[in-house]
């Protein structure tokens, strides 16, 4: 900045050219520094000078005092002055035409600002002790006297995060070039993403500074319990003797989690540990093997759940009780000699005596095993005629009715051979279905709500391993711990089945056979579907834009703030506000532009994950919500 006399014009006593700097209200001048100051006095009584307040001289160059020029860097101590000036003045009766000037280059003014900012209003989910939102919000109104509200910082456990503008819509960045560099009132909201924090208890506060960078005000410190991550566990272990009638126990160690709960499910697998199938009602930490478990592996699956999700792990088929290839052994009985050593009871086969066939065979009313037919020879005179004696039969099982066809559908004296891999309808060999998915069905699915519906295909088999038709499959979904039945489908004659799953939220899909013996699950993570459109696509300056949007998929209520309203500003998405939605998912948002706003602005809506809203976070398309201003 420069103040000078025109070297071609003479000047009278008292004429001057001067620059003055007055600090903003509630501040005073601390110092002024310049990378270079250049003062030159001319003929006569012309003076180049710098003064503090009205007449407190800081420095001058007067020809009559022997000073022609002053130059070089300089810092002036202003001592809380209310004004600083520099310029040139004619101090005598006249100042002949000559080059006279006072220049300052690269100068900076430091202010004294003794007033701290004030936090006058606060709110948001951060201030609610019972909030479990992943993104905690803190709304505020901060005022200041002097240089204005400059920056905000989030403090987690006493450690300050990145400094951000306290009022994002108002330019305020160092070095300051205006007299009052920052707004005297900041009214905004800060969003704190707790997903980046470790699970556990934390102390969170927000600090605000004014333009000095020193004066500050801090919000109260809020105690926050974070539970965003599922618990960490070791692999469950099975202990005990793998024998029918001998209890087994399952144990799992939780290495990290917030008040976790443990659910158990025992699985029956092949001898090599393959094809595990859930055992109906075997959901305790212990399980006693039954006859159906002989020569099989038994596995234990644990699901450990806390507020951050669930961790599911299954025991090893080659460790613990089933190490070295062991499988479930048959039951044992205790001998009567009192030795306490069990002996294995082996069933024996009794051959019925050979008798002369009577005219009529009456079944024994007591059910006994059916022995194989025996052939005897009866001698009458010289003729030997072989006859066949039909052994006793068990009533209700293989009794030959009138007409010669045994109950169950097999003609007398004949056998039925099932088709390859298929148990024919009506066969009694397979009474319990084994349910399985085909190879194209993933056990974990991620999709948007629009694509959350899909088709599941699978097959059912009997206990003999052959495909079984006519088996019912019950399909249900578990959302937030609540189960709801979606429908039932029956397998075709070849054992195959398909089910169309409707659209839905994040959930666990459960498929069980009609008897509840076999169970399969699919876990689905569904992204929320949110739309946002402006009512008007062109807004005048300082005008207000209105947007309407909707969440699809249900599970909304008017008590939770589920939507963030964001604008793309300075190469980043910045949250303007959060809002509640109606029970049908509809919401309305408004934004007023400043007088300096001009151009095209992009907006979007972003969903916030909460305990009551079973969707992962989703965003609307920004192109559909662009507004032209001006």
Record keyword descriptors for this entry.
630 residues; mainly beta; 6-stranded antiparallel beta sheet; 5-stranded mixed beta sheet; 0% helix
Short description:
Helix content is 0%, strand content 48%.
What would you say this structure looks like, in words?
This protein has 630 residues and is mostly beta strands. Helices cover 0% and strands 48% of the residues. Strands 13, 14, 15, 17, 18 and 19 form a 6-stranded antiparallel beta sheet that branches. Strands 33-40-39-36-37 form a 5-stranded mixed beta sheet, with no helix packed on it. A hairpin with a 4-residue loop joins strand 44 and strand 45 (573-580). The protein is elongated and about 130 Å long. The chain starts with a strand and ends with a strand. Residues 334-430 have low confidence and may be disordered.
Task: Point out poorly predicted stretches.
Answer: 334-430
Q: What oligomeric state do these chains adopt?
A: single chain
Beta-strand percent range: over 45%
Helix coverage percent of residues?
A: under 10%
How many beta-strand elements?
48
Q: What structural class should be given to the helix and strand makeup?
A: mainly beta
Instruction: Give the integer mean of the pLDDT values.
Output: 80
Gyration radius, in Å: 45 Å
Largest sheet, if any? 6 strands, antiparallel
Head-to-tail CA distance between termini: 36 Å
Number of helices: 0
Described by the principal axes of the CA atoms, the overall outline is elongated
